[in-house]
Structure formats: structure tokens, C-alpha cells
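From the methods appendix. Each design record in this collection lists the discretized structure first, followed by the designed amino acid sequence. Records were kept in a plain field format so they could be parsed without special tools. The example shown here is representative of the layout used throughout.

RECORD:
C-ALPHA CELLS (84 positions):
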């Protein structure tokens, strides 16, 4: 679904507008408290096989965020619930 529908639609749009839209959706979901545990249960996976240690810091998974994704810290909780 992502590869054939969502990605092509996203690439038709202005990147800044898509970023703003996505951050807005994450901020909205973060405010609706019922979504927080639901998103956490669906997307946070705690498994030792995903853990990585880099420069002495242990990370729960190998997935990271690009610098500046949430430069204003508006959706940091929801990004955490998503596993970042």
C-alpha cells in the first residue's frame, strides 16, 4: 500500500507542506490521550535483538530520526510512542 499509493501521492506534494501536515497529525494524536497507549502498543517493540550500542550508548532499536524532523519538539511524545 505504501509503495504503490501513499509514496506516489506524497511525492506529488511540496515536501514542506507534507512535513507540516504530518507534524500536525502527530500533534493532534498526541493531544488525544486515548491514542497514546494505542500507538505505543502497536508500534513500540521491546526485543533484545533490536538493541544496538553505539559509542557506549544503548539504543532500544536501530531506527533513528533525521536531524530537524521535530526541530520545535512539538510531537516528541508521539514520536517516542512510535518507537523512536
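DESIGN:
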Amino acid at each position: 500500500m505504501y509503495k504503490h499509493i501513499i509514496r506516489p501521492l506524497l511525492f506529488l506534494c511540496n515536501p514542506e507542506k507534507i512535513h507540516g501536515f504530518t507534524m500536525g497529525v502527530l500533534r493532534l494524536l498526541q493531544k488525544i490521550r486515548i491514542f497514546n497507549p494505542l500507538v505505543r502498543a502497536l508500534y513500540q517493540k521491546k526485543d533484545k535483538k533490536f538493541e544496538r550500542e553505539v559509542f557506549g550508548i544503548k539504543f532500544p532499536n536501530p531506527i533513528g530520526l533525521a536531524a530537524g524532523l521535530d526541530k520545535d519538539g512539538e510531537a516528541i511524545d508521539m514520536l517516542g510512542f512510535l518507537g523512536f
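APPENDIX NOTE: The mean pLDDT is 86.
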